[in-house]
Specification:
Order of helices and strands: HEEEHHHEHEHEHEEEHEEEHHHEEHEEH
Helix content: 25-40%
CATH class of the largest domain: Alpha Beta
Bound molecules: pyridoxal-5'-phosphate
């Protein structure tokens, strides 16, 4: 039995149908922007392996930090105990977040970071003895796959089988640029009542929803309206955090600062799973009580795992280095050039970028995640040894920050080739 059969017999892969899909590609090693396959191919990872791998694969600084930490302290229960990697990481994270952030709570991944943010916000009101039990979110959002995170994600095929188990959430329309005033009015109407506990959003870019980008001015207005009603604002920066949008956090483009931040993905440079939720002092104060029932009774076995924290501290050093910041600026300007060149292509309905992210939205009759175009796009690039995983009819690049100009140009050219192929096919039909 070869590796591929063994995999198919035993493993259930994420977001993957159990029938009618290509065999998974077997990776034996990864270095820089390249994934090395069992049969000797080198695939350029243009999506940072689900958006986590910000410094490229096999980074030696992070690998060594993990090795050293594993020899010293691999894990310890985080209730009643603490350790230096977690303390250092909390100082590091708070040093780059807005000043209103005061405490760090650890979890395992993006979904649990969001789950913690939601529970903190809901318990904040519970502890104060005030009945606020509604959450506002933005249509098309994706906040993760646990039940709370699914509830605040826009209704979609992903969460449809569970819809009757999800809690009730008010969704405002996505502010597309054409309807922002209307969206602000919807929001104002929703917050007229006194029962809204929190407003959760992916600041400036909805990731899994199709790399949809929206105005920081509009989000600022929504947050300021929310704050006027003491509604807790939760920024889900799981995807946008750690430099993706050109600034360290997408919220750095905002005047009004969120009360809670949910972080994960790039935090360990893509080496180990780790989630973090931070909050303002005002939130902390609702939990400062001798009354045990006001405690935040939440935690996971691997909370603040020392090895994951050590990886995150090493990644933090790399991220805040002048070299990495210069790379982010360099990639940002290359992506802008690409947008200028590509946006008027006849098969492109929209081409946009923010920081290191670029998205090319193709004209299509079906624009959802399940667009047929996906079945054309993914294999086209894999055949050219490029990993680009489209979101329906949206091709996007989210590269590791170490990608060189020529590697990025190679990806840009491959997208241009794909668009030209669509033109040729259209001319022939
Ligand atoms: C904005 C956002 N929030 C939460 C999540 C969930 O993160 P995880 O897959 O690590 O649970 C994702 C994942 O793509 C995300 O993009």
């Amino acid at each position: 039995m070869n590796h591929s059969d063994e995999d198919i017999n035993k493993i259930w892969h994420p977001f993957t149908s159990l029938v009618g899909v290509q065999d998974p590609i077997h990776i034996v090693k990864a270095e820089g922007v390249y994934l090395h396959t069992e049969d000797g191919r080198k695939i350029l990872d243009a999506v940072s392996s689900w958006w986590v791998n910000i410094h490229g694969h096999g980074n030696k600084v992070i690998a060594e930090a993990i090795y050293k930490q594993a020899l010293l302290l691999e894990h310890v229960i985080f209730a009643g105990f603490t350790h230096k990697p977690a303390i250092t990481l909390s100082k590091n994270i708070l040093s780059i977040l807005p000043e209103n952030q005061s405490k760090v709570f650890f979890s395992d991944d993006g979904s649990t970071a969001v789950e913690v943010g939601l529970k903190m916000a809901l318990q904040f009101w519970h502890n104060k003895g005030i009945k606020r039990n509604k959450i506002i979110a933005i249509d098309g959002a994706y906040h993760g796959d646990t039940f709370g995170a699914m509830s605040v994600s826009g209704p979609s095929a992903f969460n449809a089988p569970f819809s009757s188990f999800l809690f009730d959430v008010d969704f405002i329309d996505f502010p597309s640029g054409h309807n922002d005033e209307e969206v602000i009015r919807q929001f104002e109407k929703l917050i007229k009542g006194e029962n809204i506990a929190a407003f959760i959003f992916e600041p400036l870019v909805q990731g899994a929803g199709g790399m949809r980008m929206y105005s920081n001015k509009t989000l600022d207005i929504l947050i300021s309206h929310a704050k006027s009603k003491n509604i807790i604002c939760i920024a889900d920066e799981v995807m946008t955090g750690f430099g993706r949008t050109g600034k360290l956090f997408a919220s750095d483009y905002l005047q009004n600062k969120p009360d809670i931040f949910c972080l994960s993905k790039g935090i360990t440079g893509g080496f180990l799973p780790l989630g973090v939720t931070t909050c303002s002092q005002e939130i902390v104060e609702a939990f400062l009580s001798d009354d045990i029932s006001r405690t935040f009774f939440h935690g996971h076995s691997y909370t603040a795992n020392p090895i994951a924290c050590a990886a995150a501290n090493a990644s933090f050093k790399l991220l805040t280095s002048a070299e990495c910041q210069a790379n982010i600026v360099r990639i940002t300007s290359k992506q802008i050039e690409f947008v200028t060149k590509t946006k008027n292509h006849p098969f492109v309905s929209d081409c946009r970028s923010l920081g290191t992210i670029v998205a090319v939205e193709l004209k299509a009759s079906e624009t959802s995640y399940f667009s047929d175009l996906r079945n054309k796009i993914y294999p086209f690039f894999i055949e050219q040894d490029i990993l680009l995983r489209p979101l329906g009819n949206v091709i996007y690049i989210m590269p590791p920050y170490i990608i060189t100009n020529s590697e990025l140009s190679f990806v840009h050219r491959a997208i241009e080739d794909f668009l030209n192929q669509l033109t040729e096919e259209n001319n022939q039909s």
